[in-house]
Structures are given as C-alpha cells and as structure tokens.
Design brief:
two-stranded antiparallel ribbon; disordered N terminus; mainly alpha; 2 domains; Arc Repressor Mutant, subunit A; globular; 63% helix; 2 strands; 2% strand; single chain
Amino acid sequence: MDDKELATGRTEDFIYHDLTVLKHEDKWKRYCRVVANAMSAIPWVGTMFTAGASAHSEKQQGKVNELYEEWLKVHKAKVENLMVALDDVAGRLESVHDDYEERIQSDEYLGLVRRAFRSWDSAETQEKRDYVVNLISNAAASHLCPDDQVRLFNDWLDTYHEIHFKVIRAIYQQPGVTRLGIWRSVSDTVPREDSAEADLFRLLIRDLSTGGVIRQYRETTYDGQFVKKTTKGRSKSSGSGTMESAFEDTKQYQLTDLGSQFVHYTMNQVVKRIASD
C-alpha cells in the first residue's frame, strides 16, 4: 500500500470507527439525546459524515479526491476534540443522581446543550472549551441558578476572553485584592500609565465591572443593603496633579454574587484548588 492509500485508510478508519464508538459505550447510549443535540449544533459534523461516506465510496472506485482527503484530515483533530468533550459530558452526567434524569432529558436542558456546543465550536482555545463543558455539565444537576442565568453565563463565555478570565480568577482567589494586586498576579513588571498594557488593563476592569461580574468592595448591613460611602472633604492643596493609576492599590475588588456563581459553574478547577488550599 502506498503512502496515499495508507493516509486514506487512516482517515477512513477514523470516520467509520472512532465516530461510531458512541454505539458501544453505555454512558453514550443512556445520554444519546444529549450527544445528538450537542452534535446537531455544530454545522460541520453532518458534512464530516457525508465526506467520510464519499471518501469511502471514492476509494472503492480507486479515485480518492486529494483535496477532499486533506479536508477530512484537517477536521480529524476537530472531531477528536469533540469526541473527548462529549465523552466528558456523558461521563459527568452518568454520575448525576437519578433524581435529575428527567431534567437531563428535558427539552429545556437539551436547548442549553445546543447553545453550549455552538459556543464550544466557536471557542478558539481549549481553556474556553473546557469552561463550556463545565457549564453544561453543572447545569444538569444544580438548582443554584435558573436556565436564563445559565444562558447568561454562556453569553459571558462568548463575550469575554481568556485575559478577562485571568482577572476573574485573581479576584476569586484573593477577595479584596486591589488592581495592583490583580496585575501582579499575572506580571512582575508594572508598566507606564500611558502604555498599551495599562490601557488594556483599564479596559478589562471596565468590561467586567459594567458586565456585572466584579465590583469594588462594598460594606453591607445585616440584611444585605449596601452602605453608602462617606467622603471626607479635601483641601485643594492636597489634591494630586495626576489621574488615578490603572494599578491603584487602595480600592479593593470582589466578585459580585452573580460573578461567584459564574466561577462555580464554569471554572471548577479554580474552585477545587481554593477548597483544597
């Protein structure tokens, strides 16, 4: 068998063997509706099956289209990643208590699955794909927040980038941390105030603050009411001639309650690490 035939055989075997492994896994059988809904949300999956069948037919006729075969190879890695993600979700659902079985098979949850895997497919990093898997797995067996809130968290995963998540993690790990502390959690060097790095950091804090994920620390009363801040008068001579630093070190930041729920639903590894510490 020459190199071309060997390459064709590997791709064809992958299409017809690895993709059909779901037929032989008990957990995939049990949650076939979840898996099917997840796959239905990804446009290229159906094309992949069609392409595999076409390549199989063309090989039998001895005329495999090289461009077609290269397309299949490119998508092989994508399908492998998808299979791992679906296997992860199915495995987590298998460990869920039977009381949630109706929830997992419901149209409402399957709608969340389709929405989540559209985000999974468009995610550009493995980190974000992992967050999507965490979200949809935790949404199956938790009453912490309603489905509308799960969809909001899904929107946040679409909107924010990994660099936003670094800020969220820093605040989760150190409640009350200042902006300088947040910056030093990712870098040992503090840049100039007029630098691109300072501008980016201001943007990240602004994005997450206006998005309702983080806020400056606020005191509350026993019943959860926010206490107004009291400001002392300053003399004009004591005022600074420069604007507040992007890396200010007196104002503390915290996650909002919504932001904390977002962390628990999407960043399991952060929550587990803090708990073990």
